[in-house]
Amino acid sequence: MEDRVYVKPHFRKRIIKVKPDASDYWERGWKLIEKFAEPSGCRVGEMHATLKEMESIFGKPSTAVSGDGKITTSWTLIFPEERAYIEIYDWKATNKYESGYPSPEEFRNFAKENEYSWQVGSNLSTPKVKKLLEKYFGKKVANMLVRD
Description:
Layout: E1 4-7, E2 15-18, H1 24-28, E3 31-33, E4 42-49, H2 51-58, E5 74-79, E6 84-89, H3 104-113, E7 116-122, H4 126-137, H5 139-142, E8 145-146
Antiparallel strand pairs: 1-2, 3-5, 4-7, 4-8, 5-6, 6-7
């Protein structure tokens, strides 16, 4: 079988190449990328949940820090069939962005048991992101996404 190739829109020079059987995630139609990727889409809403809840849905987050320090915990989900991606991330929550804020580790320890407003970005509109979340993760997860 041929390799699937997906070029992330915000990494025009970076090509993500994965064999179809490289992960059981591909069987479900989506894959979690382990490295943080600078988003170029737009914010589509937020999800209110603890880090523990988010990990139970999406797996372990990336703990790579964005270049500007605004993001320290994130999930990058790609959906090759839909040519879409969803990024879920903290926003300006740690001392990597502003001194006096908690360290990334302190933030994650707090967010593990306390609800946090995770930002959601995508190359799709909010209604399309909700449909994608419902398709792959169920209605309960799709309803976690709110637009303010």
